[in-house]
Design goal:
320 residues, alpha/beta, Rossmann fold, Zinc Finger, Delta Prime, domain 3, five-stranded parallel beta sheet, 16 helices, 7 strands, elongated
């Protein structure tokens, strides 16, 4: 049997694979369950493993992670392996009945035009789309997970951890396990202490502090992020995006567009537009463009080795 499993949540793919392996195999060990990474392993090697008979078992399973060749995009590095896709196609048409092949892809969709996907459909393989957790289901998911950990969690803590993990189930599980080890009653303060805020949120906090003239606070946030091994170059990009959004909001507001119309045009939340326009009293459109130029120059100087990335970004914050 050949399976395709895909979806945005890597954790869901992992859980479904484990469930299928338990259903299909009597026991799971290194002899009857082999795992490959498609980025690192040519398909002909995977096919060879699939053709080998299981040792001491009735069936075996071959799991292929990052099966990019059934997806809609392929990165050059991934395509640089010497792949014999003809061998792969031939195997899919006439697969070993004693081997279950699982092709896993962490992506919202597969390429329905792919030759491999078409063959698997024709051969009545199983294609499983693992849907994301909906916005309404997240609070239920969080509470049930903490119940399994025998840990109580307050309502405001539920909302905050959902906001901070940004829909990433793997990230949530890791933080939930950490919180359960820390306490058996999770409060908002515990979440704020142990769960990192999204980087975009920190970049917004830095820009907000700078625009309010609180350079020391901006530097303090940056130094906290260094403990989390965040790269200054990423912060430069996010800060530039924040300034660029403000500049666009200023321009569209000057054209007579309402906050709702601006949000719709820029595909952002209306509240972000309101916050951006509130800053018109703090910084002009011309100043925003000047700081965008400075960030571009800083990015260039860091990447060309002219300035240390940590020192350069901190000096930018100090001199803002």
């Amino acid at each position: 049997m050949i399976y395709i499993l895909f979806g945005s949540q890597a954790l869901m793919i992992k859980n479904r694979i484990n469930k299928l392996l338990r259903e299909r195999l009597e026991t799971i060990d290194d002899f009857n369950c082999v795992r490959f990474d498609a980025v690192e392993t040519p398909v002909q090697d995977i096919v060879y493993e699939c053709t080998l008979l299981p040792l001491g078992y009735d069936r075996k399973a071959v799991v292929v992670d990052n099966a990019y060749y059934i997806g809609k995009t392929a990165v050059k590095e991934k395509a640089s392996l010497e792949q014999d896709f003809k061998v792969f196609s031939a195997y899919l048409k006439n697969s070993n009945e004693q081997t279950d092949l699982f092709l896993c892809l962490n992506a919202p969709a597969i390429d329905e035009k792919s030759e491999f996907v078409k063959i698997i459909r024709e051969k009545e393989g199983t294609i499983l789309e693992l849907t994301d957790i909906s916005k309404n289901d997240w609070p239920i998911y969080v509470r049930r997970y903490f119940e399994k950990l025998e840990t109580k969690i307050d309502d405001d803590a539920v909302s905050e951890i959902i906001a901070r993990v940004q829909g990433d189930a793997t990230n949530f599980n890791n933080h939930a396990n950490k919180l359960a080890l820390y306490t058996n009653h999770v409060t908002l303060a515990d979440v704020e202490l142990l769960v990192c805020r999204p980087l975009e949120e920190n970049a917004f906090a830095i820009s907000n502090a700078l625009l309010k003239g609180n350079n020391d606070q901006a530097i303090a946030i940056f130094r906290d992020l260094l403990v989390q091994n965040e790269e200054p170059v990423r912060l430069i990009t996010l800060l530039a995006n924040q300034f660029r959004l403000m500049s666009e909001c200023y321009f569209l507001n000057g054209q007579g567009l309402s906050n709702f119309a601006i949000a719709d045009k820029l595909k952002v939340n209306e509240y972000r537009v309101k916050l951006a326009l509130d800053m018109k009293r703090k910084i002009s459109a011309q100043q925003l463009l000047e700081y965008l130029d400075k960030l571009y120059l800083l990015d260039y100087r860091i990447k060309s080795g002219q300035v240390d990335r940590f020192y350069g970004f901190e000096m930018f914050l100090a001199e803002f």
